[in-house]
């Protein structure tokens, strides 16, 4: 295996270790292989020096706004490069950091544990992130006013609709099948909830192995519900899997046009698409070439797709693809592409300094430009370090 292949393989596994960034996947990158212990990136030099004299992307975004101001859609950048984890709102263009979470392994036996999330949710009134331990899963709807939440102790039999400004549940939606993940449609009117027979965050210990291992057999994913947010009505689709061909957490999300749902899968393409009845279908036009492990996916206009690690012209960069063919179009700065700010700019993780691949921060990058705008401070440590935060994005 050459260096490029090793780097790409490692980034694939790193994406699988993160919960779906949800998109639409706020937490929402879906793994297609069993998790293996994270390997360090080999052959990646210290990060490219970030050269930016003024924190502007281009003339479309004329200013970087303070945390007390929400810019118009597509018109403002809210950056806090001195904050990690962030305390004040971060946003760029159409996309905001709607929440973030940290993971902690909580033991409940000598050889059993649960990977437990602590969330910080954006309060749209104060423009600050507020800590909560109430919820095991949070998906934020477009508009940043409402979140769909699950209580601790997965899988859950009800879904809460949370008012982000007040922190109060507006109402509960009961479900016939216990669920452990949620993802909104692009228009915010529907939720796809992934059903499990057990807790997909369950972990176990293997004698002689220091790290806790995800338990795919305990999860037993068995299908999905599509829920109408306004009425609370839902439809059920059974999608099998006895745990032998699934990752421990193999969540569903909506396709770009909201007609279908998809998940990562142990298939040659790395994903599967299903209609609302659970029948497997062909990938919608433009989505078949999108890398399943790259959270950003298609650009808002559908003309570009975010690709995986490149590192050719730039030391830390990612590919931009033609979604019709999967061919490389160009490179753009960024270690991992997370969300589109508009049709030409993306939010990404990128390295800096001499801290290695885990010493990274949120940045705004633009296709065709070498400017990199820091949005957050750096995360430190390694992939398993306590307090490392994972972003959840939503349209604002």
Q: What can be said about the biggest beta sheet? A: 8 strands, antiparallel
Could you name the ranges where pLDDT drops below 50 across 5 or more consecutive residues? 1-74
According to CATH, what is the class? Mainly Beta
Structural category: mainly beta
What is the count of DSSP helices, taking H or I runs of 4+ residues?
A: 2
CATH structural fold name? Methylamine Dehydrogenase, Chain H
Gap between N and C termini: 42 Å
Number of domains: 1
Count of DSSP E strands? 26
Description of the molecule:
By secondary structure, the chain is mostly beta strands. It has a single domain (3-395), classed as 7 Propeller (Methylamine Dehydrogenase, Chain H). 5% of the residues lie in helices and 39% in strands. The chain has helices at residues 3-17, 216-219; strands spanning 77-78, 91-92, 95-107, 112-123, 128-132, 135-140, 146-151, 156-163, 168-184, 190-196, 202-204, 213-214, 221-228, 234-238, 253-254, 261-264, 271-274, 280-281, 305-309, 317-321, 328-333, 336-340, 345-351, 360-366, 372-374, 389-395. Strands 1, 2, 3, 4, 5, 11, 12 and 26 form an 8-stranded antiparallel beta sheet that branches. It is globular, with a radius of gyration of 20 Å. Residues 1-74 have low confidence and may be disordered.
């Amino acid at each position: 295996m050459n260096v490029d292949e090793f780097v790409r393989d490692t980034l694939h596994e790193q994406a699988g270790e993160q919960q779906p960034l949800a998109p639409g996947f706020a937490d929402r990158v879906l793994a297609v292989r069993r998790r293996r212990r994270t390997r360090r990136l080999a052959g990646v030099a210290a990060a490219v020096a970030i050269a930016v004299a003024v924190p502007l992307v281009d003339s479309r975004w004329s200013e970087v706004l303070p945390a007390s101001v929400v810019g118009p859609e597509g018109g403002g950048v809210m950056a806090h490069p001195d904050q990690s984890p962030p305390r004040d709102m971060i946003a760029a263009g159409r996309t905001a950091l709607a929440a973030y979470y940290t993971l902690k392994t909580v033991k409940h036996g000598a050889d059993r544990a649960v990977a437990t999330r602590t969330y910080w949710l954006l309060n749209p009134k104060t423009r600050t992130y507020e800590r909560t331990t109430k919820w095991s899963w949070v998906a934020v709807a477009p508009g940043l006013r409402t979140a769909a939440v699950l209580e601790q102790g997965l899988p859950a039999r009800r879904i809460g609709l949370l008012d982000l400004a007040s922190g109060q549940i507006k109402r509960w939606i009961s479900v016939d099948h216990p669920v452990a993940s949620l993802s909104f449609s692009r228009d915010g009117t529907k939720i796809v909830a992934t059903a499990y027979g057990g807790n997909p965050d369950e972990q176990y210990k293997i004698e002689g192995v220091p790290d806790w291992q995800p338990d795919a057999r305990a999860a037993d994913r068995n299908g999905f519900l599509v829920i109408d947010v306004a009425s609370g009505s839902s439809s059920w689709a059974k999608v099998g899997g006895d745990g032998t061909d699934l990752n421990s957490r193999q969540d569903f999300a909506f396709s770009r046009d909201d007609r279908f749902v998809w998940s990562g899968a142990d298939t040659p393409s790395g994903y599967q698409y299903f209609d609302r009845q659970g029948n497997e279908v062909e990938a919608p036009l433009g989505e078949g070439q999108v890398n399943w492990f790259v959270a950003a996916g298609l650009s808002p206009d559908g003309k570009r797709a975010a690709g995986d690690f490149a590192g050719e012209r730039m030391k830390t960069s990612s590919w931009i693809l033609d979604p019709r063919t999967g061919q490389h179009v160009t490179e753009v700065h960024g270690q991992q592409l997370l969300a589109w700010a508009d049709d030409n700019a993306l939010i990404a993780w990128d390295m800096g300094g001499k801290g290695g691949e885990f010493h990274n921060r949120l940045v705004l990058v633009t296709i065709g430009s070498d400017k990199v705008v820091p949005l957050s401070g750096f995360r430190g440590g390694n992939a398993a370090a306590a307090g490392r935060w994972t972003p959840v994005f939503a349209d604002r």
